[in-house]
Each structure stands twice: as C-alpha cells, then as structure tokens.
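User: I'm putting together a teaching handout on how multi-component assemblies are represented. Below are the sequence lines for each component of a complex, exactly as they appear in our records. Could you produce the 3D structure of the whole assembly as structure tokens, so the students can see both representations side by side? Please keep the chain order the same as the input.
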Amino acid sequence: MVENRPFVTFLSHLVVILGLIIIAFPVWMTFVAATHDQETMLRQPVPIWPGTHLYENLVTVLTEGYKSRPGSVPLIVTLINSMVMALGVAIGKILISIISAFAIVYFRFPLRMTFFWAIFVTLMLPVEVRIVPTYGVVASLGMLDSYSGLIIPLIASATATFLFRQFFLSVPDELAEAARVDGASPMRFFWDILLPMSRTSIAALFVIQFIYGWNQYLWPLLITTKESFYTVVMTVSRQANVADSVPAWNLLMAMALLAMLPPVLVVVFMQRQFVRGLVETEK
Amino acid sequence: MEKRVVFNDRLLPYLLVAPQMIITLTFFFWPTGQAIWQSVLVEDAFGGNSKFVWFDNFTYLLKDPSYYESGRITLVFSFLVATLGLALSLLLAVMADRIIRGASAYKTILVWPYAVAPAVAGVLFGFLFNPSVGTVSWMLKGIGIDFNYVTNGNQALILIVIASIWNQVSYNFLFFLAGLQSIPKSLIEAAAIDGAGPGRRFWDIVFPLLSPTGFFLLVINVLYAFIGTFGVVASLTQGGPGQATNILVYKVYNDGFRGQDLGSSSAQSVILMIIMVLLTFIQFRFIERRVHY
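Assistant: Of course. Below is the structure of the complete assembly, with chains in the same order as your input.
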C-alpha cells in the first residue's frame, strides 16, 4: 500500500467480494440443488438455501446413476474410471517426458534436434482439431473401450517435456561433472541426483495434468461405447442433454457436484503447486 | 541454451526418447497426416472407395455459406471471451492486489473455476439459465427479460460466452496478479510522491508494465476460445439453436461424426490446424518479451 485511501480500499474489497459472489454462485447453486428433492427443484424460483436431501441424492447417483433409464450408469463406476484416467494421464505424461527431456539435455546424438522439434509441434495441435483421424487410428489399433485407449493417446505432451528441459538446463553443470568423475552411469545420475531435485516440478506438473486428464470430455465421449468405461465428466454432460419430461435436477446437480469435487479439492489443497505448475508450463 | 557437460552413450538416449516418440508418431503424426490426406479425398457413402479430388473439399467449404457463418460466430465468440474475460480478470486482479488483509482467502475461492471441466461448467450454466427452473433466468424475468437460450440464438451465444469466461477467469486472474506483484513498488511510490492519484498511476505505470502479460493472455484466451470451449458448447447448446453457436471446432466434430462427411471435416481440421499453428507462432514469437515472474 502506497498511501492510505480508505475509500479506495473499501471499493477494492467491494469489487473483489462482488466478483467472488458472482464466481462462486454457480457452484453454490449446484450444491443447493443437490440437497433438495425432485419436486422442489421443479418449481421456479428454486430455493437458494440448502435442503436436507443431500445424502440420499448422493447415494442414489453413486449407486444407480441418473434415474433408471437406459444408459444411466452408477456414478461410482464413472468416478473410478475418471480417477484411473486422470492418474494414468498425469503419471504417464510425467514419466515419458522426464526421460525424453533427460536424453535431449544430457546427451548429444544424431537426430536429437529432430526429436526435439517433433515433440514441439505437438504443442500446436490439441486432439480436438484432429479428432476424426485420431479416432480412426485408435480404432484400428483395437483400443476403443479400454483404459489404454483413454490414456495413451493423451500422454504425448510437449509442455511437460519443455518444463523438464527448462529445469534440467538450470541444474548446475558441476553436478553432472562430479557424477561423471566419480564414475556414475547416466542412469545413476538421473535416479540419485536429477530425480530428487525435480520433486517440486513433478508435483506442480502432476496437479495440472491430473486436472487435464480428469476434465477430458471429447476423447472419452468418442472412444467409449461400453458403460463400464464411461468417465464422470462425459456422463454428466450426456445426461444433462437427454430430453426429459420431468428432469431430476437434484440428481443431475449431485452428479455435477461429484464430477467437479476431485479436481477442485486438488487445486484447493495443492494451491501452491498448482499456481507454480500453471506459470511454469506456460514458459 | 546447451549443456557443456554431457554423457556419452550410443544407445541409451534413443531408448529414453523412444516412448515419447512412439506415442507422438502413432497418435499425433499419423492422424495429422491422415487429416491432411483425407482433406483431398472424397469417400462414397459406403466408405468403400475414395477418390482423389485435389482441393475440392476446400473449395466446397469456402463456397459454403454455413462455413463462413461458423467462422463469423467463432470470431465474435472469441472476441467477446477474450476482451470481456481479460477486462474482468484484470479488474479483479488490480483490486485484489490492493488488498492485504484476506488476500489469500480471496485467491483460494477465485482459483476454483479452473478446476471445473468446461463440459461441467456448461451443465452448471445450463441449470442457472434454464428457462423453466433457472435462478438467473427467473431473476431476468423479474426485470422484464425473457431469457431462453434454447430457442434464442443470440442469447445462446451470450450464455456460452458467460460460461467460457467463468471457466477461464481464474487462469487470467492468477497471471495478472503475478504480473502486478512483479512491478517494483518503488515506481508506484515515486509516482505517488509526485502527486499521481491511483487512476493516473494505473494507466501510466501499471498498465504499460502489464502489457506483456496482457498480450500473452490475449493469445492464450483466443486459443482457449477456439479450442478449449468445445465442452461448454457440447454441454450447453450443441451448436444450436440452428447454427447460432456452431463454432469451428464444434463443426469439425459435428460434420465428421454426426454428418459423416469425412472429407469436409478433414478440410476443416486442416484449416483449424493452420490457425492454431499461426496463433502458437505468434505466442512464441513474443514470448521472449514477456515479464518474468
């Protein structure tokens, strides 16, 4: 604070609090809707304070899904699938990126820069813009309706490789030199020195990639036809769009609540790593 | 930048890059190549025979009024998402930067929306603005606005803009806040001593120093509006009513999977790829001039 202007300070608080209310409102209303019964949620205006049916709504969607109609699947199944997918994408990306960044930074070999640029161009074309042929490739490899189909096509990532490359370049050369003088093999250096030093980068990247994996929508929508492989985000969106004579908003919003809970918890509890990850992956 | 100290091993580096390269080749280069190849083919209705047709798919596309309409909607949509989204997050960041007490609590609530999937954000806003039960549509009715995004194209577009901005606001906010906090306090103090008020200090000092962050965020937001908002559109409007929210990335999917028009969808993919490459290029061209946190 440069100077004391009570009015401006008051105004700042006011604007920020107003902004917070507006931003939190959709999430609040989702929570409120999930705590009422179906009839209450059909009368406009719907309540803006919580009711008493949260527990039973959650139990219903977790064990039965949204109503009992074709295509509804117990949400617990989709939550497990999403968890497998998010963890798979996050861990897979970190694994393949950290070793390829290690190779590109710490070795000189023919085609090194070709590999580097090949990885670089993937940055430009997310799966949404080349969706039809990517689907074709995955189908021809027989990977539809499988965890490997959900995970593997998404783990090629330039951002993660760049982040580790950037970090490795900032590691003092003396460390590698000392390791070499002591006769350590490259992999020994990687395991005993580089990997422990990369812990914070790995944590930051994990948070970002977990959210990325969890929030995938189009990819699981395309390659899963069996309900046992549905993920939670696509299920919520799909159920929201089924024409319905008497929509059960309470159940739908309970599903939405469960779909956003894990990534929101990750962001809130790992906020420091999250902010670090955001800023670093964009460098 | 290169390392001075390197290891020597013939085979090891290839083994280390192999997993990444195999996945990149299989799931990136192969489909990208196919998209380009299919964009110059026409397949008959049974998918059996395809014929090489040079750039016919592109010429059809560029003669198709619905493609221009989709392009126009995408431009309007991206412009609104980027400008309104950035203005709003800048306002919040500037105000939050002034606040010392309670700043971290504010920040915790503001980072939430980033964690919500675009597709789920679409569901949330579909509920709030639902014509028959939505709280916001009810409030709007109270002030005489009949909001029905299911039938009104302009309102549908407004709604996907609002939902997309909401989903992206935390990202912009965090970068603006980091940018603001990296501005030396001494500059602001010097201006204050010279008698410049808060408004003057903002426009003459803070705003110019923040412009690299702003430019970076502008590119990111346009990219986001072009591609990242797919889930919002798919959950809320599916491109409708009519064509009112059929943005380019949704049209690629819609024509390819629902319309089964592979040639046209691939040609659209290729055009979208070119736009993406250009935007990414702009982003990297200017990235050096960005502020450092």
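A couple of points students might notice: The domain at 34-281 of chain A is CATH 1.10.3720.10 (MetI-like fold). Residues 86 and 212 of chain A are 7 Å apart (CA to CA).
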